[in-house]
Amino acid sequence: MSQGLIPATILTGFLGSGKTTLLKRVLTEAHGQKIAVIENEFGEENIDNDILVSNEGEQIIQMNNGCVCCTIREDLRSTLSDLAEKRRKGELSFDRVVIETTGLADPGPVAQTFFMDDEVAESYLLDSVLTLVDAKHAEQQLDTRQEARRQIGFADQIFISKTDLADPAAVDALAHRIKHMNPRAPQSRVHFGEVSLDKIFDLKGFNLNSKLEIDPDFLNADDGHGHHHHDHDHDHEHGEHCDHPHHHAHDDDVKSFVFRADRAFSPTKLEDFLGSIVQVYGPKLLRYKGVLFMKGSDRKVIFQGVHQLMGSDLGPKWMPGEKRQNKMVFIGIDLPREILEQGLTQCLV
């Protein structure tokens, strides 16, 4: 029995985007992994009963292939603790957990559970938040539902499904729009539920230290200020410097912005400022992340957060000759960009 933290994946997405198809595939495919699936809604349209082996009155159901399925009767926290305890006692065997949220849920509180609750944090590691987007209906959903926009803002990885049913130009415009809302989540276009498992698991989207290993471009991504020539339409971050006229029809409330500076931060000033920002704007901050150059430290500091919960970690040392700089990405709803920029600038040494 491997000890160590159990990786957890949050699967979110609009109704009809293919979450159930994806889940069924993950659960029935012979990938040699035992997966526990926690469902926030457990309806007849979800997992077929023919692949379930149910014990009467038990909320945890074993699959024929050894996977485990679980409905959330109380809250997520107790369900996770319960699963971890059964695993420790050897009553259940599973390698990882996938949590499917309801179609219009805000994944924020689910993600926060992994930070806030000591018992959960001792057993689980939040690997990533995956958002499925239905290419055919997304445009309208993003226009009318803030929950849909929030799901994009939270994502570590975005899968656009049903692209074969939508007009290719519309899919390109959708991909572009999503990129403005969340530049740090890679996008993949997938056939309904056909995603290879290595794109779903162990993405390390949320683990602080691994961010640098898996995303060497995090520090050098062009943030679209026009200093560099754009070779690719879809590579720049946030919309304000975007020259694509088709895009301006959507001024989404979920936006990202990048702060960059070559001078070091004063640790105390930065902590005070970020603390106050998180107090005031926490509910509107979906995800934020950064690699920081701190005065007095020869190591990178990696910081990230969800809503009001913020954490930081020492990263690797700055290499000799490596350019030391701060880069932070904030994704949120109607972010007070000027306040953030001025405040962060005042925290520089």
From TrEMBL:
Q: What's this protein's function?
A: Zinc chaperone that directly transfers zinc cofactor to target proteins, thereby activating them. Zinc is transferred from the CXCC motif in the GTPase domain to the zinc binding site in target proteins in a process requiring GTP hydrolysis.
* Catalyzed reactions per annotation: GTP + H2O = GDP + phosphate + H(+)
Please list the GO terms describing molecular function.
hydrolase activity; nucleotide binding
Q: Which SMART domains match?
A: CobW_C
Q: Which InterPro entries match?
A: CobW-likC_sf, CobW-like_C, CobW/HypB/UreG_nucleotide-bd, P-loop_NTPase, Zinc-reg_GTPase_activator
Q: Region (Disordered) spans which residues?
A: 223-247
SUPFAM superfamilies (UniProt xref)? Hypothetical protein YjiA, C-terminal domain, P-loop containing nucleoside triphosphate hydrolases
Entry keyword annotation includes Nucleotide-binding:
yes
The keyword Manganese is annotated on this UniProt entry: no
Question: Where are the compositionally biased (Basic and acidic residues) regions?
Answer: 232-247
Pfam families in UniProt:
cobW (PF02492), CobW_C (PF07683)
Q: What GO CC annotations are associated with the protein?
A: cytoplasm
Q: Name all CobW C-terminal domain ranges.
A: 254-348
Task: Name it.
Answer: GTP-binding protein
